[in-house]
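Assemble and predict.
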Amino acid sequence: MRKPTSVLRYFLMLAAVAISPADAKEKPKTSVADLRYGVALYHYYQQDYIAALAELMVADTRDGIQGHGDNPELIAGGVSLAFGMQHHAEGVFNQILQDERRPQSVRDAAWFYLGKLHYSRGDWAAAEQSFARVSREFKPSLRAQMQALQINIRIRNKNYTDLTLDNIDRDELRSWSPYTFYNLGAAHAREGNFASAQQFFNELIDIDVVDNPVRRKEQWALQDKAYTAMGYSYLAEKKYAAAIREFTKVRLDGVFANQALLGYGWAAVAQEEYDEALRPWQLLRSRSLMYPAVQESLLALPFAYEKLGAQGEAVNAYQSAEELLAREINLIRDMRATLTEGELLTLIGSEPLSAEDAKKVLRGDDAEAGALTAVVTDDGQNWLKLDSTSIIKTRSAYMNELFAKNTFQTAVLDLRDLLRLQTLLQNWLPKLDAYRELLLQKQAQRDRQEQQLAQHAVLQQEQKLQLERATLAQQLAQISSSDNYMALADDETRALYVRIERGQQTIARMKSAGQDTSELETRIKMFGGILLWRAAQQYPAQLAAQQGELKSIDATLVNIAQTRNNIEEITATSIDIQPTLARLQVLQKEVSVHLENTDQLIAQQSRLLRQQVDQQLAAHEKRLNNYLAQAHLAVARLYDAELRKQPE
Amino acid sequence: MIHPLRQWFRLAILMSLLCCFHVSAQAPTKSAEQVESLKESVLTLNRDLLILEEELLYPASSQVAVFVSMDLGTYFALDAVKLEINNKLVASELYTDKQTKALFRGGVQRLYVGNLKTGEHEISAFFTGRGPQQDYKRGAKIVVTKNQEPIVLELRIVDSSAKLQPVFEIKQWQM
């Protein structure tokens, strides 16, 4: 059943869950307009609040999440609530409300969650004011919750007497109506208005049990509680028969069975029907001693025997009680010694279990006998339970009262969050060392590149090659346009052709001197023709080779240009190493400082938690000692009475 | 005759029974404020560290980020995703119920963040899972050209009511 004093964080988290924009069952999801919003939701739906908040915060630092209207802010507020950051959430909701242009639905949601925040802090007036700003168009399921809370505020302010079954709208309250009826019944009972109380309890009992198995279980438990409360109300009014009638309606396997059995016995005793009292108390006596009602039955049962004149049974029952109480006190002392600060930290820091695994552990399927087991469910609630064997279960019941307290549950959740922050910071330390090393290496590489650029090595090489390329291209163009075969002929041909040209010059001089050179001219022309023919044969291949050379130079030039571009790009676009390095060093220091603060806070919180646990156990030990002392006295009294009866 | 202790006990039980639901409240304590203050400053520090990390490891000029989303429920239950870039496996995920539920409710998983050189790259994703009639093992492929802008891809799994089966596609986001 929903816990009577449910954990504060869980109560607030219900708000966070309700903020979620998509409900898997009711509405299919639609594609996200900004992936970062989707990523935040992905973490949020898995209760990974740190990652969800980180995503939203990083997006906010940049250009903000686009295309999702006010949802990112509502989600940020909701996740902050779930992560126990109430002030932050309050700031987010107030910021939303400062903007009058926001849609009514968003403003309604912000007022509602703000009201719940005030409510959780006990600021009833502020809560009322916030709730009053919510419009009638607000989502009906949340409106129902709000109305239930508004009635609770009226109960706190003792302003509920005009609320009757006739003027409460059950349909508006939806699934909250059983709790509201219970609260109103309990309020009337506390004031001694038992008749009114019984009306509300009866109304609660008349509500049809729903089909949903979880809700049904809750409703049964609530009905049991109402029957038990009614029984005790009748008991207070000295209507014992009516009290017994209500107690007998409580399920024997329910959580209120022990209190009902005890009340049944008292009602019977009040009517001096001691035999009738024995039945429930004997049953109660056979149950685990961890429950206060069972402890009470240890002394109630022999009391009934005494009233029936069964002194022998009474002595036996008292002695048995002494033995059981002594054993129980030892168990509590042992537990006080076992639950050290370190042990509590281990329990709270344990990996969360899935609901299925948690059930297995609770059933004791896996746990080593006698071992303390932390069961931290991953459904948003954090429980600290000690389980696995009947002894440990016995011990855990002593803690139930403490576990149900908001202060304890908040302390446990805060400690768990602190442990997560500690892990987060611890994980950053080695990464930051590695990034620093990376930056230093980049710096060294950058230095080398800059040096290379400074020497213009690449540039000079490029310029030289470009010059060579231009010369070669020009030469080839000239050769090609003039069909200068000889320019590309092999060395031997060109050497022979040089000799032909010299011979032609000699013939010219001879001719001008009046000599007959006709035969020589014919021969030299023939030789020249042979050489030109040879050069022409080689020309296409030689031209292709030269053009290939040109292409090769072009390719080299492209590579050089690429290298130069890369260097320039790295220099121009890469991060500024020195400022980044400085930034990193600042952050490294901050991580160390925060880690130290976190460690200190963890130590402080675990100390406080240990104190709470120990105080709780000490109170139980004291109560059991009280019972033990009474049992001792009763035994002594009975023996004394027996002795007095004997003739001297 | 009922012992005085019994009377007290009865009253205690009655009062415990008469506690209201959801009426308890807790004013913030000094230590709670200390914890919240630390949470805020650690989260802010974490944000700065994440920004630095991204700038350092995945600069925009070379960044590639791949996300997974689901918009379905009827025809496909996701088991695993594998991601390859240029035929090299770079990321894989075996999904838990919790993860698939988060995806189904509208969450988007950041599957991979890495770096790519400028030029063309082939990115392939392989999905395995169960449908109402059969198991699925399907792939999707895209060729992207990397320039100075980051590449952002969304691996989308959607129900096709026309085909009555899941459809797997890769959407490139323009950044």
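Chain B has a mean pLDDT of 86.
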